[in-house]
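Pasting as-is:
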Amino acid sequence: MPPDPIDWRELNILRHEILAQRERGRASVEFSDRFPNELVVDHVNQIADTMAAVCQVRGLGLHWSRLPAEQAAEVLTMCLHEDLIYHNACMSRARAGALAVRVMGLFDSETIYLSNFRPEIDRHHAEQWPSLTDADRDGGLILVSRSLVGAVWVEDHE
């Protein structure tokens, strides 16, 4: 069965909502359907690096952390909810969680979630995450499915 058609209008609305509400630091939200299905499974890290470049951040090559969906939702919620330096709220946790659910809801159950977040590092130690920018702290999520690729990335400065 072919995937549902991508609702670019909804993607654009969601993108603007995230950018408007994550008012501290810099945020990037990008989506693409330009990767052929056959490339997705064998080239996930290269696709993640390409989406990182679209967000104007460096890629991690083979060093992306693959996250289960539940942990990916938590990482995305955290990056939207608070700045990564002082942990001050950028928006309510409930609102950040709702936006994370909407982003992840656009992708199928076989989506691969990648981040610079390391599961073994506590979320309050973002300074230990591999940085992909020249910002003091950055983090986010790359979502890779057969029909859609997305990236939500935030950067915070002291």
